[in-house]
Structures are given as C-alpha cells and as structure tokens.
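Hi R.,

As promised on Friday, here is the backbone we talked about, encoded as structure tokens. Could you run it through your design pipeline when you get a chance and send me back a sequence?
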C-alpha cells in the first residue's frame, strides 16, 4: 500500500541570533546577509540541547497531528549530519526518548538532502509492508560545526528539527521519489574532520566553495523537479507548492524561474530559520501545513540538495 504523511511537527530552539548580533562578532552586516541569502535570523540550540532533543520535540508534534501514539511507531529514520555522538544513531536515541522500542531505527546521512533521502526510504519500507507507522525526522545542530570567525559560512546556518509521520494509505500521498549523488563534488561542501585515536584530525568545521555550491544547486534542483514532473506526467503548472531545501532565497528563486513557477508558489522560511540542512524541508513543510497554505488534494514538490553532492525529489499529493 502507498504511504501518505498523516502529520507534521517542528521544533526551533528558544535562542534567536539576529544578523545584527552576528555583525558585532564578524565583519558582516544585516544588509549583506539579507541581500545575498534572504536570511534574517537563525535559532541556536542551548548548551544542554542535543540533536535528539530537537528531533524528539518535533516528533511529538507530528505524532499529535497524526493522532498516532509513540507505541504505534515501528520505524524511525532520522536525517542528520550533526548527530548526538559517533554512535549509536540519533534515531536510536530518539526511539528510546520516545519510548517506542522494537522497530528499526537508523540515521540517514545525506547532508541537506537528508530529509528527502529519509522520506524516500521510509516511504518504500511502508509501501513494502516492512513498517506501518514511520517517523521521519530531519534534525540538526549546525551551530556546533561552524567556525564562528568565518563570515563566509557562519551567517548561513541555524539549528532546528522537523518531523512527519507516514502511514499506509489506499490513496497515494507520496507519488514518487528520485535520489542522486555525485561524489566527485564531495569537496565543495564538507566537514573534513574525523575522530582518530582520541583526537580530532582535520578541520571539524563547515568548509564551502559558496559560488560553486550555488551553481551546482540551481542546476540540479531544476533537473530534479523536471525529473519528478516527467515521471508523473505533470508540468510545473500542476505544482501547488514547491518546497526546496532552504539554503538561500536566491537559489530558490532561480530554481522557480527555471521551472516557470510563480514566486508565490515557493514556500520559504529561510528568513526566519536560515539553512537548517536536513531539517529545512520538514520545517518549511510544517509551517505551510499549519498556516493553511497546503490544502488536501494539492501537489507538493520537495527538492533536496546538499553535500556529497546529493540531490533528489519527493512529489506528494496532500
Ligand atoms: O546547503 C547548501 C549550503 N550552502 C549554500 O547554500 C551556499 C551557496 N552559496 C551561497 O549562498 C553564496 O555563494 C554565498 C551567500 C555563500 C555568497 O554569496 P556570493 O554572492 O556568491 O558572494 P561571494 O562568495 O562571491 O563573495 C562576494 C564578496 C566577497 O568579497 P570580495 O572578495 O568581493 O571583496 C566575500 O569576501 O562578499 C564577501 N563576503 C561577505 N561579506 C559580508 C562573504 N561572506 C560575507 C559576509 N558578509 N558574511
């Protein structure tokens, strides 16, 4: 049986860091950040908060919205690049904190495409009968892997989590998913550090070729969208809401322009959340569901792109 999203949820840490505050720490300005990225502020996790805590809070909201209890969840997939620890997976920690023991739980590491990857995998597992009620979360604490002296990266990212509950459905919700990666581009966006014999070797902070990432993202987001539409016999005119990875408003606008999609059809939360990597798409989805923009029967196209390089789409009927 196909799957559909039965409920969504989100969590943003209480602390908000504005562009104005950032410009007192590094040589930047509110005007530069807004003009080049569309970002106005970001949320920052508190010292006692872990990625699993953010995921848990978002998951609880999604479960309530779906009217599914934690005990009924038999699959947990967490997309994250900033896990609580090397192992066990953040998904296993979330499972324990939720009290939903027994079903499979694992993390997906596809950086900013992580949620699209996780949703695609969970959808197939529900469709194949390997799970009935799946919890899929994107959760990140990027503030801990940023060099706060590097204005080229520290202004771009934020912390947060978004979650959905997938259930089997006679009427398909998820219509298609398409995933891609090209490891030849792995160095244009990476955190190369590794834990080795008790010490961190290599830089444990985000390294990025900004313009290189920008060009790559615009190209593959548009290609992904066209691939999804062609597979479903649809055109851009059939898309009610486009929810691309929330990296930069200029990347989102350029993608919409390439598709001939009106600006108003693009859900954007980058001004308030910044780039929350694997959490950005489920955060934006939850915002648009809860404010009533996304209505039953509408087509929603999720587009992910991120380090790896990875990219892909999930097309759904709400
Ligand atoms: O999930 C994917 C994550 N990554 C991304 O989304 C990044 C994609 N790339 C981008 O969003 C853009 O490339 C950036 C926002 C990172 C940069 O914008 P840009 O228009 O490509 O600027 P640029 O890198 O070409 O830099 C232009 C100037 C440079 O100064 P000079 O060399 O022209 O004097 C930079 O040093 O802007 C300078 N600059 C800044 N100035 C003020 C770079 N960062 C900042 C900053 N504040 N925070």
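Update: got your reply. Pasting your designed sequence below so it's all in one thread:
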């Amino acid at each position: 049986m196909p799957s559909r999203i039965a409920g969504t949820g989100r969590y943003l840490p209480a602390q908000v860091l504005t562009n104005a505050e950032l410009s007192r720490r590094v040589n930047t300005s509110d005007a530069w950040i807004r003009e080049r990225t569309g970002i106005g502020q970001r949320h920052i996790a508190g010292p006692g908060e872990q990625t699993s805590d953010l995921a848990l809070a978002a998951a609880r909201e999604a479960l309530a919205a779906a009217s599914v209890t934690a005990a009924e969840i038999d699959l947990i997939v967490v997309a994250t690049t900033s896990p609580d620890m090397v192992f066990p997976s953040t998904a296993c920690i979330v499972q324990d904190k939720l009290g939903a023991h027994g079903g499979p739980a694992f993390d997906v590491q596809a950086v900013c495409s992580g949620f699209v990857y996780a949703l695609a995998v969970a959808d197939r597992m529900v469709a194949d009968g390997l799970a009935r009620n799946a919890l899929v979360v994107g959760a990140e604490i990027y503030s801990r892997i940023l060099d706060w002296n590097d204005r080229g990266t520290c202004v771009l990212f934020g912390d947060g989590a978004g979650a959905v509950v997938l259930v089997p459905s006679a009427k398909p919700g998820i219509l298609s998913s398409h995933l891609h990666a090209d490891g030849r581009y792995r160095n244009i966006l990476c955190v190369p550090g590794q834990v080795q014999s008790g010490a961190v070797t290599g830089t444990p902070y985000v390294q990025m070729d900004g313009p290189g990432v920008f060009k790559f993202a615009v190209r593959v987001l548009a290609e992904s969208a066209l691939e999804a539409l062609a597979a479903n016999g649809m055109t851009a005119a059939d898309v009610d809401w486009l929810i691309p990875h929330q990296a930069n408003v200029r990347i989102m606008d350029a993608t919409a322009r390439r598709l001939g999609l009106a600006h108003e059809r693009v859900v954007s939360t980058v001004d308030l959340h910044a780039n929350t990597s694997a959490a950005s798409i489920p955060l934006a989805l939850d915002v648009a569901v809860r404010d009533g923009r996304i209505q039953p029967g509408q087509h929603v196209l999720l587009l992910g792109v991120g380090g790896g390089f990875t990219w892909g789409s999930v097309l759904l009927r709400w």
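One thing I noticed while checking it: The chain has ten helices and 15 strands.

Thanks again,
M.
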